[in-house]
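User: Can you recover a sequence for this backbone? Please restate the input before giving your answer.

Assistant: Of course. Working from this structure:
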């Protein structure tokens, strides 16, 4: 059987930077308690690897990151690649904790752009995933940021400001972003758009669209990973006959590939290379 890896796939530079930052922090502080607010990236294997090094990941769907800080009395707090609300950082510093920021540069760039437009009097329509840490961090900036995840959210908007900018969470589908911009402009024709899908995300998505003779595709990544989920959805919508989202090699079933001579493998930007290689 011919197994082809889709290029590019797997770890992006932002994920590599965040994971390496966590490891370097542990190496430089071998005896200090270290905590991560949320998952450093959305992949359980990465989280488990850091846990083995004595780094505690605090993640609870019922608690905000601001509330999670109440569980830490001393030590170092690492902020994840997705970005963190300023109120969380400030609370950590007031508690006397050392803060290490692992926010992805592309996320910071989007934040800076949004702040600039807010300062210029704009309302922001932000295309993102509800309750995603990146979206939550952005929404904490201002009440003039309006989250939309689908058509129904657009229909509920009630913005009277004539100055509107449309932008997005960095890991969304660039195809869905185009559709959302079109829908928003029907309601707000004067709205401007700044597309902020990060390069790594868009390249991985476009690589799937450019596949030829692909009948079976494995998309490797954690179900919590938004960029991995978008890859899976793009592949299905493209019309690939068999698309499977899997965590690791144990999820492969013989019947998935029976009768096929070629299998393609791609992975989200938070998926470790060793998992992809094993598959």
């Amino acid at each position: 059987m011919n197994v082809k890896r889709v290029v590019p796939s797997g770890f992006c530079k932002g994920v590599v930077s965040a994971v390496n930052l966590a490891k370097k922090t542990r190496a430089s502080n071998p005896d200090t308690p270290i905590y991560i607010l949320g998952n450093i990236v959305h992949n359980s294997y990465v989280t488990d690897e850091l846990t083995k090094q004595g780094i505690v990941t605090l993640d609870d769907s019922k608690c905000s990151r601001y509330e999670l800080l109440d569980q830490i009395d001393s030590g170092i707090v690492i902020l994840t690649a997705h970005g963190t609300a300023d109120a969380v950082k400030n609370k950590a510093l007031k508690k006397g904790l050392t803060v290490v920021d692992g926010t992805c540069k592309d996320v910071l760039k989007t934040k800076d752009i949004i702040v600039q437009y807010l300062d210029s009097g704009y309302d922001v329509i932000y295309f993102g995933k509800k309750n995603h840490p990146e979206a939550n961090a952005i929404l904490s900036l201002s009440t003039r940021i309006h989250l939309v995840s689908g058509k129904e959210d657009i229909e509920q908007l009630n913005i009277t400001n004539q100055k509107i900018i449309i932008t997005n969470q960095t890991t969304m589908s660039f195809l869905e972003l185009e559709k959302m911009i079109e829908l928003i402009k029907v309601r707000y024709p004067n709205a401007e758009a700044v597309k902020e899908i990060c390069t790594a995300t868009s390249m991985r998505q476009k690589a799937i669209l450019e596949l030829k003779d692909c009948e079976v595709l494995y998309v490797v990544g954690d179900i919590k990973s938004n960029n991995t989920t978008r890859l899976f959805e793009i592949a299905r919508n493209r019309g690939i006959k068999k698309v499977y989202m899997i965590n690791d090699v144990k999820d492969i079933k013989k019947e998935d590939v029976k009768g096929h001579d070629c299998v393609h493998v791609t992975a989200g930007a938070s998926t470790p290379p060793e998992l992809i290689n094993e598959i």
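That completes the design. Residues 13-28 form the longest helix (16 residues).
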